[in-house]
Amino acid sequence: MKDVKKKNPSKHFGWDRLFYNNKFAIAFSVFLALVLWAIMVSSDTQDRPKAITGVPVKVVLSDSAQADGVKVFKQSDNTATVYVKGNSMIVGQLKASDIECVATLPATVTAQGSYPLSLQVQNVGQNFGANQYTVDSIFPQQIYVSVDRYREKTFPIVDDISYAEGYQSDPSYFVGAPTLSSDNVTISGPEKQVSQINKVTYEYKVTKTLTDTVHFTADLVLYDANGNKLGNGDMTINPEKVDVTIPVLPRQTVALEPTFANKPSGLTLSSGKIAISPSTIEIAGPKDTLAELGGKLSLDTINFAEISPSHNTFDVDLTLPKSCKNLSNQPSARITLNLEGMSTRLMTASLFGVKNLGTDKTASITSDGISVTVVGPPLEVAKLSNSSLVGSVDLSSTGNFTGQTEVPVTFTVSGSTSCWVYGSYMITVNISQKNSD
Fold first, then answer.
1. Could you tell me the pLDDT band of residue 38, with boundaries at 50, 70 and 90?
2. How far is residue 175 from each of residues 99, 179, 250, 278, measured CA to CA in Å?
């Protein structure tokens, strides 16, 4: 007799059969009811308020406070949490941007201080009306604000550079005054805090001998009248930092040398003929600039038209390269020319030429001649004739002018390389338009 295999009932399990089981159906119904109840309870905002976080807090000043210059410089909270009730369809859509918390400063507040202010909720969004929900509570219920009158003041930035104990400077270098990215600082904020400031500095300590220019950035430090450091508090500091450069330049002594314009080519002025006081000065500057100077500094130019035996001393300004510093603090040098043996002669100049005249114009000299003073070695001066003097008239400054005008004239001396004309002269010129035909 063949064995009959039993069928495994688990292979024919079906979920649908469970719902024909009374016990399972009752248990499942209870579970489903509990889930639905939980969902309904969690979404019921009529009795269980919804928390809206991150609601902005706005402080409102009275008109009188604003007119008195009162401002809020600090508040304990910038956002709050608002609990609201109402229709779940409405409350569920409310966001922090739809409402705000307002703290109003009473008009009676006119003095500096910290004050507690209660928060009130107001509707700011366009999506919902304030009557569509109810505010249950606010957290926090009040904030603290610090108020004062606004004040702004500008201070010079003072150097506060110290040197390490035993610091030794290098005498071959010049350490200049620091230069700052900003010489002044503007501080604004509560009047009580700003009024305490007496001085603003930056601090820097030199720890090694300076032989190169130093660059650094430093924080600004506030001090009161008693020398006590102050914190920044609620103040705005502009700028908060300053870029500082301490110039460190090599020193050098340079000889002063005169320069001349319109000097006769054959006239030699030996060192014994020129006295310069001072003859040298000490300067500081970049190494490459000092190398270019080669130990000499040219003085501002003296025009030979200003030199005569009776007018032979000049105070000439010293002009240094922009990157250099005059350590001698000597703004000028006195130059005296020894013109002993030179003579002067009054002559008449009658030969003139014009230059820089427009091509559409003509010019004529209305004078037959002018008297000029000639200076030079006696033998050279004696052999000159009036024809040796040639005047040059530069008309570049007349532009479109036509008519008669007076312009400067300069002279050259032909037939001598050691003489020159002393003085300044004017001459009348008649300028006219050329005929178109």
1. low
2. 63, 12, 9, 24
User: Could you tell me the CATH number of the domain that includes residue 74?
Assistant: 2.170.120.30
* The two structure tokens encoding residue 278: 């001072």
Name which of 186, 195, 200 is nearest 158 in CA terms. 200
Is residue 10 domain-resident?
A: no
Strand duo 50-60 + 99-104: pairing:
parallel
Are 57 and 120 in a shared domain?
yes
Distance CA 415, CA 344 (A): 16
Q: Is residue 369 part of a domain?
A: yes
Give the CATH number for residue 236.
2.170.120.40
The per-residue pLDDT for range 53-100, each reduced to its tens digit, is 999 999 999 888 888 888 899 999 999 999 999 888 888 889 999 999
| Mean pLDDT, rounded, of the chain | 89
**Which of the four pLDDT bands, split at 50, 70 and 90, describes residue 165?**
very high
Residues facing 308 on adjacent strands:
311
Residue 392 lies in domain:
343-433
Cα separations in angstroms, 234 against 72, 109, 194, 197, 285: 10, 19, 9, 13, 44
CB atoms within 10 A of CB 390: 16
225 and 275 part of one domain: no
Structural domains in the chain (count): 5
Gap between the Cα atoms of 47 and 383, Å rounded: 126
Instruction: Assess whether 132 and 55 both reside in one domain.
Output: yes
For 41, the 3-state DSSP assignment is helix
Asked whether residue 4 is domain-assigned, the answer is no
Any idea how long the chain is?
437
**Which has the closest alpha carbon to 304: 387, 419, 408, 407?**
419
pTM of the model: 0.61
Please give the pLDDT value at position 1.
Answer: 45
